[in-house]
Amino acid sequence: MQQSFFNQLQNRLENQLPFVAYRKPNETSVYAILQKNDALNYCQDFTNSGFVFSPFENIENAIIFPLNQSEIIEFKDEIILDETEHSQSNFNLENREKAKQFHVNLVENAVNAIKNESFKKVVVSRVEQSPFNSSETILLFKRLLNNYKTAMVYCWYHPKVGLWLGATPETLLKIEGNRLQTMSLAGTQPYVNTTDVTWQNKEIEEQQFVTDFIVDSLKPLINTVSTTKRQTIKAGQLLHLQTKISAVFDKANFNFKNVLKALHPTPAVCGLPKATAKDFILKNENYNREFYTGFLGELNFTQTKSRNTNRKNVENNAYQSIKTVTNLFVNLRCLQIKNNQALIYVGGGITKDSNPEKEWEETVAKSLTIKSLL
């Protein structure tokens, strides 16, 4: 079963056919959506059903693998790695100092812009290259599945776009029926045997910016918005601050694309105010993020639930509820495979209290999520 599932993914890579394979956080089933042709389909109004993959800069360029043009397969057994399988990667230390200096300068420029009141927060990022044998992509995907049970783990490929993998801890939004859930996730420190840690004002303030932005963005579009208390969560070997946010909406007046535009990109991946922070990113990062800090996931899937779980009560089991479900995740902790190189994308939130050296170290810690498996 395992060999058949992963062999199909390998065959699609070799035959240059579009697919996405993924496992949602804390679930056991790995699904693959295999598009039956190599057409490039765009989302447009986000009313169709399928797996969506959106870039950071413009959701109008979001790509979808439509369910009505795809085959869906599932794998739910334990993933066993063949000990004879291996991958090896050497990191280019020669360019590391140049990358560090550029990033430190970028952070300094961001802090100065914040002190000049250009914006309150901005997220700056970088991309790190490492040699990687692209024939071992599916092995890397299996390693991600084995190591990051609480993340959205995926492998996405389209011959006209590229090959991306990741293990993201952050939900952009979940919609089930008329209920919407999202989260505010920001602040980072290494996990060292406990989640009972002290957070600095910089991280607390950064995370509160994200929470306030999401709530303020949703209120004009949805009447009732509520939040939980801030908590520390573990994602891989890192800790983050998280607040859960939920809302109930009137389906008749709900415009999903407007909600997406209001939320994406959040201050957790862009900044605040959004427009000026995004402008700073596009002018100063010196590379194209592409799908890093975009979003991905299930769009308008149909979910059928029986109203009675008692199998003996056959009559009541005939009454089923059908809901439309959407699960979208922010594309973090990800990499792109291109020309036998792994392009690893990492970043961090900058506020007026940011220390450029520490911000560099944070990106190094985040890169280990992927590097440790290469």
From TrEMBL:
Family annotation (InterPro entries): ADC_synthase (IPR005801), Chorismate_C (IPR015890)
Domain Chorismate-utilising enzyme C-terminal span(s) in chain numbering: 103-303, 323-366
Superkingdom: Bacteria
Segments crossing the lipid bilayer: none
Protein name as it appears in the record: Isochorismate synthase
The species this protein was found in: Mesoflavibacter zeaxanthinifaciens subsp. sabulilitoris
